[in-house]
Design a protein that fits this description.
alpha+beta, 22 strands
């Protein structure tokens, strides 16, 4: 959801070498002699368990080392069968999953129905404290393994049944017509038995069934992945591997790219946008993505959740001059948000540029009036928090606070709280330590409107870090999930989205384009709809 770099001693610009390699990905090879790609990265927040990773940086790795029942086409976003041969249902509630033959994990274990069922049961169980456990909440028996309070009364979900090594069935609590489309998300990945028999060893060197294997990982420094020659899938790596190098400042990563010390930067910093075209030419990528940036309110803090505060939250939204900020800071790589989803969904997929209406428009007079009507900022001030190691977050946070302060005319009542690293910031957010609004960048897990709403705003959902709860919103999401007609489902989700506009648990800021720059030693570089490089397609010259 995204320190020092791994680079060669002294020869690589502004970097500290923690693992010996050559600059620009080096000349070492793998995968049948193909070269190694070096790419910028940020340390994941959590160990790389599929059901425990719900942020972008960890997700990049999981996308390389795992393949699930489905995979989203890098160009279209369509959910296509990968390990699944078929996923069949007659009632939108009970599904039979049949696996393709020949899939194995990189340690030689076969990928079976049990590999999926064991992984999902592990991800769901309350004792395992997995961030993505709510993704399994639709399955019958989830409440027994993950009760709202108290201890689990079962070890496994009764809705998962292994029929034979290549077949298992899934019983859902209610109809969920698009459930198969969600199964490309990494939380649904299979796990080998080694994950359970020697968990610590697996965490140190994760084993999956994707086109890459983890060769080494030094936290805070780098991860080396190498192409798996025996990978049975259709999307074999076209390079010998990927060296992910941790940067705490993406300006440093960009400098290394220009100096020839790095092959790929997948988040071009705002400060470099004025130069990127002349620096890179056609080696610069800027395209729409399934990403929205928001500011979330900590509704677990009574000061932000008392009666009338929805007006304050709406007023703050209207005090932000989105067009000016996106133009001056982001130079056409961001677009002012007009709803809670993304234009990359398309109108048929649920994007509606009229849903937020005036609440997402800059209106200083109305903004000031609403904030006053709602009782004013808690304590007369607010602090906006984000990590500042990637994404030019300090620049836009300063601009947002300046915009709010100019509207209110009461001095610097909005101030910025910069957190040094993404991991530290995420730990504060996920432990509900925030006392004021905080940045949330949402990169969709799968291309459905449901994924922009349910995980973020449904009561108790996996990424509902503001702890918003609204019974009518939940009811509409449930109804939409059960609707077999796609157009009706989208309309019902949009009805739920209107409640978000009324309550404003988060402020939609802008839609984020996917951006990347790459060196002249690699080709076939592309970003998928989630703005993640399609690493397996990259070729090294």
């Amino acid at each position: 959801m995204r320190g020092a770099t791994h680079a060669k001693w002294a020869a690589c610009a502004v970097a500290v070498a923690l693992v010996a390699t050559a600059c620009g990905g080096g000349s070492d090879s793998g995968g049948g002699g193909a070269g190694i790609v070096s790419s910028s990265w940020g340390d994941p927040q959590n160990p790389l368990e599929p059901a425990n990773t719900n942020e972008v940086q960890g997700g990049k790795v999981l996308d390389m080392i795992f393949r699930g029942l489905k995979r989203y086409d890098p160009k279209t976003g369509e959910a296509q069968n990968m390990v699944a041969e078929s996923i069949e249902t007659t009632d939108q509630q009970n599904f039979t999953v049949t696996l393709k033959d020949g899939w194995t994990f990189s340690n030689g274990e076969p990928v079976t129905a049990q590999s999926f069922v064991d992984a999902w049961n592990y991800g769901a169980h309350v004792d395992n404290k997995q961030n993505n456990s709510p993704f399994f909440s639709d399955i019958v028996g989830y409440d027994e393994v993950h009760p709202a309070s108290g201890n689990a009364t079962a070890k496994t979900m009764s809705g998962l049944v292994v029929k034979d090594p290549g077949t298992f069935t899934v019983a859902l609590k209610e109809k969920f017509s698009t459930w198969p489309e969600t199964l490309g998300y990494q939380a649904f990945s299979p796990l080998p038995q080694s994950f359970f028999t020697d968990h610590d060893a697996w965490l140190n060197k994760p084993v999956g069934n994707g086109p890459y294997t983890v060769d080494s990982y030094a936290k805070g420094s780098a991860m080396q992945l190498r192409a798996w020659d025996e990978y049975p899938g259709p999307d074999k790596a076209q390079n010998g591997g990927v060296d992910l190098k941790v940067y705490t400042d993406n300006n440093t990563a960009y400098t290394d790219l220009i100096a020839g010390n790095l092959d790929l930067v997948d988040d071009v910093p705002a400060q470099q946008l004025k130069n990127v075209q002349s620096d890179l030419g056609d080696r610069y990528i800027n395209q729409p993505a399934l990403i929205i940036q928001t500011v979330v309110f900590p509704l677990y803090d009574p000061a932000w959740n008392k009666a009338g505060m929805e007006k304050v939250r709406q007023g703050i939204s209207m005090a932000i001059n989105r067009p000016e900020i996106t133009k001056q800071i982001f130079q056409d790589t961001r677009t002012p948000a007009k709803d809670f989803t993304s234009p990359a969904l398309g109108t048929a997929g649920g994007y509606n540029d009229g849903i937020c209406g005036d609440v997402c428009e800059y209106d200083p007079a109305r903004a000031k009036s609403l904030i006053e009507e709602g009782g004013g900022l808690p304590g007369g001030k607010m602090t906006l928090t984000s990590n500042v190691d990637t994404g030019s977050h300090r620049d836009w946070m300063d601009a947002v606070c300046n915009s709010i302060n100019n509207v209110l005319g009461q001095g610097p009542v909005c101030t910025v709280n910069p957190v040094g690293t993404f991991a530290d910031f995420r730990n504060q957010v996920s432990n509900y330590k925030m006392t004021g609004p905080f940045r949330s960048g949402w990169q969709a897990d799968y291309p459905l409107i449901q994924n922009f709403l349910e995980p973020l705003y449904y009561t108790g959902a996996s990424s509902n870090y503001g702890k918003f709860s609204n019974a009518q919103f939940d009811k509409l999401v449930d109804q939409a999930n059960q609707e077999s007609d796609a157009a009706k489902a989208v309309a019902t989700f949009q009805d739920a989205e209107k409640i978000l506009v009324e309550q404003m648990p988060a402020i939609p800021l802008w839609y984020q384009n996917g951006s990347a720059g790459y060196s002249d030693r690699i080709t076939d570089v592309a970003l998928n709809q989630f703005s993640v490089p399609v690493y397996d397609e990259i070729k090294v010259a």
